Amino acid sequence: MDTGEEFGPWLARQLKLAGKTQAELADELQLTRAAVSAWITGRSTPRPTVMTDIAKALGTDVGTVHTRTTDTQAGLPVTWYHRPGYHDGGRDMGNAAAFAFDADVQVLARETCQNSLDERLTENGRPVRVRYTLHELTGEALDSFREAILWNDLFPHYSAVSEAAADQKVGRVVDAGVRDMYEKSRLVLLRVDDYNASGLIGDDYADGKFAAVVRRQLESLKSGPSAGGSYGLGKATLWATSALGLVLINSTLSVPHEGRTERRVIGRLELPWREVEGETYAGPAWFGRPDPDSPGAMVARSWWADEETVARLYLTRESDEPGTSFLIVGAHDVASLESRSDADDETGSVEDGDEDTRDIRKMHGRLVEALGRDFWAAMTGGGSRLPLLEVSVRAFQNGKEVVPEKQVDPSVEQPARTRALRAHYEGTTVDRLTEAGQVAARNVPLKLPLSGGAPGTLGTHQAVLLVTEAEGDGDGGKNQVHSLRGNRMTVKRAGVQRLPLGTNPFQAVLLAGEAAGETAPFAKEAEEFLRAAEPPEHDRWGQTEELTLRWSPSAYRRISALTAEVNNAVRELVARPKRSSSRDGNEAVRKALTVRTRPKAKAPAGPVVPVLDTLDATVGDDGEWRITAEVSIPRGDEIVPMVPVAQLDVRSGGRPKLEWAELVAVEGCEVVDGTLRFTPGVRRAKFQGFTDVSSHPVRTTLTRLVLELRAGKGSDA
Questions:
Q1: CB-hemisphere CA count at 13 Å for 465?
Q2: How far apart are CA 341 and CA 336, in angstroms?
Q3: DSSP assignment, residue 385?
Q4: CA–CA gap between residue 690 and residue 663 (Å, rounded)
Q5: Regarding beta strands 607-608 and 638-639, do their DSSP bridges make them parallel or antiparallel, or are they unpaired?
Q6: Low-confidence ranges of the chain (pLDDT < 70)
Q7: Torsion angles phi and psi, residue 270, rounded to 5
Q8: Eight-class DSSP state of 217
Q9: What 3-state class would DSSP assign to 364?
Q10: Contact predicate 497/506, CB 8 Å
Q11: CB neighbours (10 Å) of residue 716?
């Protein structure tokens, strides 16, 4: 027989739920209070015959008392608790965290899959499995579900929000969601299940993963240093994707709570301030069992549900493997209209009102696309490295499968990059691309700053750059670098500009931080630094407030330098080798020719200083100055290295200096730590530069650029 938690803790909670004291139970059983106390503290357990009397006293069956896999139904029933309005009259017109993201299933996929990766149980070495299930309910199935979530209790709150919908954004979204459900008699559920994850462990209120997700905002409690999230904002995408602001949760815990692990259930509703029947409510509400320890037993807490209840709530999990199921009630995909409107503008085939943000087939396709694009690396293994993630997507209508479950295959979604990563794991990379299908690898340095604004470098982390030829049309954008770190989610996607003419299409991958491997120097420190350089969307590395506070306002320049190193390495790896200038067949002819030449002028002794000859400058799309400069070099035995310095022309005072985001040698020179070093014997050289927009004191269109070449080895020479 399957048994749940220890008898003592279970009985203590049932007495609270039933509103009974130990003394009252002892009187009903005609036993001493000391006997009941011994059960509660675990010093003894009741005899089988007494179990029957306990079940009768608690209003349940004897099987429930024996197994203790669920709470009794006696006492306080599952209900909705709405947070009362603030005593000082303050009003919250919605959860501000939800406005950080669009109502977009692709954003939802990125944030939820990242969270599942962060909570993966690593001890067994297995990947975390994530499944997305779209389920459209109509007719009796819809009525039954609304009854299960106590819709009649919620409806007055939705009505109050709809009445004030014209005054604020959240109200308009909720009003549209309710109207769609009634006018079209349908409701779309989107469930996100993960397995081999930690689950929402911890107390309902105290510090822990459960409280961080269900009770609090802007709190992130991640399981490891390579975690993707750090702001505590990602969970808000769950509620942002619900037009009704409603998410139900069923978690199987990796660490027991109250002696239990399975079917820990709760719901959270996010609505704006409202007034219902003369009472004001602050915003959020919770669906659960009233906590007898709260004032008036009003606050709802999680409860241990039975299998029938989770089935009615569409929260049934496929196994007892730890993890969490999030059910988004009233899912919609507003961002899908953008891609559709682009196509419609060309064909003119769609009338106003035909757009549907709740098309489960289209949502299925967009989920598969996003998961393959952002998590291909986490799903890729090779050599001794196992995949971190498995993902699938499916769709139902009233319990009938309408889109078969699709396992996202990284080799199909991102074939070239998957090939590159596998070659790295299997140790089959090469130094340079000479044949089709090869993968070239190159180390690129990231110089890590000292924390606290101290000058100097902590150390140099060697990230790994992989380059391979692109596949066909199914390979995504060509000539791009996908950058990722420890959890192997694509953080940054960027094209490589100013490629050599005739370059074959390629794809590149940058493995930084712990993604570069355990033996990479300063991998942990780079992981921490790059994580701090990510905004809430986790879609780039650059200047952030955390980077400024923990390191310095200029720390982001280390990332700009890494980008320049990556782009230079890519250009070198994809450049076609130059043909030899010798022609063996004409050697005899050349020997027969005599060409009179004037004797070379004697080169002046001592170093010569290059001079800026021509300059072409334009303003880029992001507001940066983009310059191409040519340098003339006098004849001499030694050429002085020069530092390009970009400044703004002003009427008075010193000229403000601009930082370089990237300096690129084109011909006759090389760039070393911001200094131009010239090839011996050249008479002309050419380089390009792109200023760092964040170093501009004013908008570029309001300024004029001055470029100087200064002698020296450093930028301040």
A1: 26
A2: 9
A3: B
A4: 7
A5: parallel
A6: 1-4, 73-76, 91-103, 165-167, 217-234, 296, 336-355, 472-476, 576-605, 650-653, 713-717
A7: -115, 105
A8: S
A9: helix
A10: no
A11: 9
Instruction: Match 């010093």 to its residue by tokens.
Output: 43
**Whether 487 contacts 115, CB under 8 Å:** no
Residues 500 and 575: beta-carbon distance below 8 Å: yes
- CB burial of 328-360 (b: ≥16 within 10 Å; e: otherwise) equals bbbbbbbbbeeebeeeeeeeeeeeeeeeebbbb
Alpha-carbon gap, residue 690 to 661, rounded angstroms: 6
For 494, the token pair is 């960027």
The HSE-up count of residue 39 (CA atoms within 13 Å, CB side) is: 23
The alpha carbon of 518 is separated from its chain's Cα centroid by a whole number of angstroms, namely 23
The CB-side HSE value for 306 (13 A sphere, CA atoms) comes to 9
Question: Dihedral sign, CA of 79, 85, 91, 95?
Answer: negative
Helical packing angle, 169-183 and 151-163, nearest 10°: 130
Cβ contact 501:439 at 8 Å: no
Residues 23-41 as b or e (16 or more Cβ within 10 Å = b): eebbeebeeeeebbeebbe
pLDDT, one tens digit per residue, over 266-308 is 999 999 888 898 899 988 999 998 887 777 678 888 998 989 9
Torsion sign across C-alpha atoms 514, 518, 520, 524: positive
- CA separation for the pair 248, 265 (Å, rounded): 8
d(CA 696, CA 622): 12
Distance in angstroms (rounded) separating the CA atoms of residues 153 and 520: 57
For 479, residues 6+ apart whose C-beta sits below 8 A from its C-beta are: 470, 495, 496, 499, 503, 505, 506, 507
**C-alpha distances in Å from residue 657, one per residue of 552, 571, 652, 686, 697:** 19, 28, 14, 22, 9
Measured CA to CA in angstroms, residue 363 lies from 212, 356, 394 at distances of: 28, 10, 10
Tokens 């390979």 locate to 475
What is d(CA 242, CA 332) in angstroms, rounded to the nearest whole number?
6
Contact 153, 165 (CB under 8 A): no
Cα–Cα dist 629/646, whole Å: 12
Residue pointed to by tokens 């306990």: 54
Indicate whether this model's pTM tops 0.70. Answer: yes
Task: Give the type of residue at 80.
Answer: W
Q: What sign for the dihedral angle of Cα 23, 29, 35, 38?
A: negative
pLDDT value at residue 346:
44
User: Please, which residues have CB within 8 angstroms of residue 679's CB and are 6 or more apart in sequence?
Assistant: 668, 669, 670, 685
Question: Residue 396 and residue 389: Cα distance in Å, rounded?
Answer: 24
> One-letter amino acid identity for 133?
T
Nearest to 628 by CA among 693, 707, 713: 707
Token digits of residue 647: 């400044």
C-alpha dihedral (46, 50, 55, 59), degrees to nearest 10: -120
CB atoms within 10 A of CB 570: 24
- Region of 427 (left: φ > 0; alpha: ψ -120 to 50; beta: rest) is left
Residue 653: is it exposed, middle or buried by C-beta count within 10 angstroms (0-12/13-18/19+)? exposed
